Peptide ABC transporter ATP-binding protein (Streptomyces gilvosporeus), 346 residues
Amino acid sequence: MTTTRTSPSSSASPPPAPRAPHHDAAPLLSVHDLTVTYPGKRGRSAPIRAVDGVGFDIAAGETLGLVGESGCGKSTTGRAIVRLLEPTSGSITFEGRDIGHLTQRALRPLRRHVQMVFQDPHASLNPRQTVARIIADPLLAQGTPADEARRRAAELMDLVGLIPEHLDRYPHAFSGGQAQRIGIARALATRPRLIVADEPVSALDVSVQAQIVNLMADLQRELGLAYLFIAHDLSVVKRVCDRVAVMYLGRIVETGPKERVYAAPAHPYTRALLSAVPLPDPVAERTRERITLPGDPPSPATPPPGCPFHPRCPKAQTVCRTELPALKPSAPGAARRVACHFPEAG
């Protein structure tokens, strides 16, 4: 088994504070009213609106956590942003340019600036290619000479805590955590400004998750990266993100600074999610309120009328069953926004 080079990023200590995001400047990424619809099976089912009017901004150097249950549209949102999926409607503006509907040819020069880290590290690496080729591929696609691309691959192996001498090995020789480091190195090859990380630690052992989280925080601080960090584990999101956006059935139901959202969630769904996060204090863990939601999330093929959360919401009233709540500030001038007719105060 290939070993990992010892580095500060490999420890399980809390991640260092990321570089302060530049909120006063124009957003690095701005997503507005993004919709992604999958066609239904021929004549047998309705189209599935996996993402339904999603919008958010990410500043340079910032991390936005996108959280929610499986099937809520998180990964579809991320893949649409990097254009692995075609948006049905809406806009995706990167550095002031709408990239949501560019042709693949027009998009190619911009791909170096927006890269992706995938959930399953081994599934995302070609088993027939060496690590050198895997990391160098984005550079070769951009026209970088082969010898220069290999030198860059060696630099990146060292940067992510792997031994550069192992460049000519194949993915099967690496553990899951090491394979994810290779995936991160590949994403960094073209010196991107934004990385979409789709559940980057959920397929890894708990003992390895902290190492990858710390590595990503170190890289953000060193390189000034912005992250869209997609996850369902709210404890991980709390460690790495500046702001949080909570998705339910293809829509964002609450978004804001993580301190505000975690301390006093305004949407009933956010409150239920946070009530399931384990607490380190055993006394607090035994005595706190746990919120159990009835039933399962509705199918995106047949969403309920009104608020999509109302069939499971303990606070639902008549208006919730007929009117879709807008995502709006929880108070005048507040940084937090919530889509609820009866949000919690706080």
Notes: The CA atoms of residues 279 and 285 lie 5 Å apart. The first strand starts at residue 29 and ends at 38.
